[in-house]
């Protein structure tokens, strides 16, 4: 088997990564490309869990800002992640990658419910497991879901695939010309320097459970593969 830096990962995909330039919804050619990238790493023999966001359709926080009750707005967001998960499953299976979708909120006609031990068994049988519906509770993000599922399935790392951003910078590179990209950081550096990688709940969960993060740009073909093969292309964050 190829020399892999990680054997079992959680890949965090933002919902926006499925929208492409149209900025909303699911853009079929874009999701096909993402699925192809996942297939390329799947073929290396890696065990892959995917947590997908829903921001390409709905953001709970934005709904709340527009006057909606926050919990209600978050439930709509969870449903958005389930739609993305089903679309991703469809695309992966059309490329002959075996998958299982597990939802944090039971909807058995559509997908399996989330059962930790079953998810691990699927991974051991080389099925890509897509964790849909966020944590199933309002007030949490899909970054937190990624950290939670990574801890639960004993993932070696969380791969934070960003939409157009190639790592963690000292400042916003679009605003500050002096912004520098970090290759390596600790979770403590992130807190001390006031950087933003994940929301604080997700950061704390990854730090407490000693789960490394790899932050990199999804939009460059081959990047997921480079990360799992140990190439330093983005920012690695360790506890
Ligand atoms: P093994 O136990 O390793 O054989 O895993 P498996 O997933 O192949 O077995 P299972 O018989 O549990 O599932 C067969 C198919 O049914 C898979 O595509 C599952 O995703 C799907 N499936 C299992 N449970 C549910 C469920 O509660 N709801 C829905 N919609 N599909 C399910």
Q: What key phrases describe this protein's structure?
A:
single chain, 239 residues, alpha/beta, Carbamate kinase, 9-stranded mixed β-sheet, 11 strands, 19% strand, globular
Could you please describe the fold and organization of this structure?
With 239 residues, the protein is of the alpha/beta class. The two termini are 28 Å apart. The strands form 2 sheets. It has a 9-stranded mixed sheet, with helices on both faces. The longest helix is centred in the middle third of the chain and has 25 residues, at 70-94. It contains 8 helices and 11 strands. The chain is 37% helix and 19% strand. It has a single domain, classed as Carbamate kinase (3-Layer(aba) Sandwich), CATH 3.40.1160. The protein binds guanosine-5'-triphosphate. Guanosine-5'-triphosphate binds next to strand 4.
Explain the layout of strands and helices.
Layout: E1 8-13, H1 28-42, E2 47-52, H2 60-65, H3 70-94, E3 99-103, E4 112-113, H4 116-124, E5 128-132, H5 142-152, E6 157-162, E7 168-169, E8 181-182, E9 184-186, H6 187-193, H7 200-208, E10 213-217, H8 223-228, E11 235-238
Parallel strand pairs: 1-2, 1-6, 2-5, 3-4, 3-5, 6-10, 9-11
Antiparallel strand pairs: 7-8, 10-11
Helix pairs in contact: 1-3, 5-7
The protein binds guanosine-5'-triphosphate.
Shape designation: globular
- What is the number of independent domains? 1
Distance between the termini: 28 Å
Unreliable stretches? none
What quaternary form is this? Answer: single chain
The SS-based structural class is: alpha/beta
CATH homologous superfamily caption: Acetylglutamate kinase-like
Described by strand count, sense and barrel closure, the largest sheet is: 9 strands, mixed
In CATH terms, what is the architecture?
3-Layer(aba) Sandwich
What compounds are bound to the protein?
A: guanosine-5'-triphosphate
Write the CATH fold name: Carbamate kinase
User: How many H/I helical runs?
Assistant: 8
């Amino acid at each position: 088997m190829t020399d892999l830096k990680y054997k079992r990962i959680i890949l965090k995909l933002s919902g926006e990564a499925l929208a492409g330039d149209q900025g909303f919804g699911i853009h079929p050619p874009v999701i096909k490309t993402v699925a192809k990238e996942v297939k390329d790493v799947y073929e290396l023999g890696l065990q892959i869990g995917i947590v997908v966001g829903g921001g390409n359709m709905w953001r709970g926080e934005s709904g709340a800002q527009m006057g909606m009750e926050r919990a209600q707005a978050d439930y709509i967001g969870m449903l958005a992640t389930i739609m993305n998960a089903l679309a991703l499953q469809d695309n992966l299976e059309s490329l002959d990658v075996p998958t299982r979708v597990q939802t944090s909120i039971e909807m058995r006609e559509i997908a399996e419910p989330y059962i930790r031990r079953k998810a691990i068994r699927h991974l051991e049988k080389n099925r890509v497991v897509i964790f849909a519906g966020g944590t199933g509770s309002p007030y949490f993000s899909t970054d937190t879901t990624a950290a939670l599922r990574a801890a639960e399935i004993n993932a070696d790392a969380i791969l934070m695939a960003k939409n157009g951003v190639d790592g963690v910078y000292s400042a916003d590179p679009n605003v500050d010309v002096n912004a520098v990209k970090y290759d390596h950081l600790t979770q403590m550096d992130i807190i001390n320097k006031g950087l933003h990688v994940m929301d604080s709940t997700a950061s704390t969960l990854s730090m407490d459970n000693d789960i490394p993060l790899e932050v990199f740009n999804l939009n460059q073909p081959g990047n997921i593969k480079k990360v799992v093969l140990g190439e330093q292309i983005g920012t690695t964050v360790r506890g």
